């Protein structure tokens, strides 16, 4: 199935509340990794509450387009 904004949103809707790692491209050869919890999804963006021990701010939002264009990658943690 081709990846579309609607399929990305549907997948993230089912993962609300789960822990994840966000790997973001921050420019030329620079990558930022952030750990947190997927808190909410909205029609155009989703919100991640960040781990306060690692970050100076509480939450960050990304658009579904960032996932589609591979500007960010989302890795959900396997809970055991």
From TrEMBL:
InterPro entries referenced in this protein's UniProt entry, alphabetically: Protein_Veg (IPR009366)
Pfam families linked to this entry: VEG
Coiled coil regions in record: none
Origin superkingdom: Bacteria
Any one biological process term the GO annotation gives: regulation of DNA-templated transcription
The protein's name: Veg protein
Source organism (scientific name): Liquorilactobacillus oeni DSM 19972
């Amino acid at each position: 199935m081709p990846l579309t904004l609607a399929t990305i949103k549907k997948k993230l809707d089912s993962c609300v509340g789960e822990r994840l790692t966000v790997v973001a491209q921050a420019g030329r050869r620079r990558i930022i990794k952030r750990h947190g919890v997927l808190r909410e999804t909205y029609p155009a963006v989703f919100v991640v509450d960040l781990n306060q021990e690692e970050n100076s701010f509480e939450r960050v939002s990304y658009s579904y387009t960032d996932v589609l264009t591979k500007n960010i990658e989302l890795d959900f943690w396997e809970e055991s």
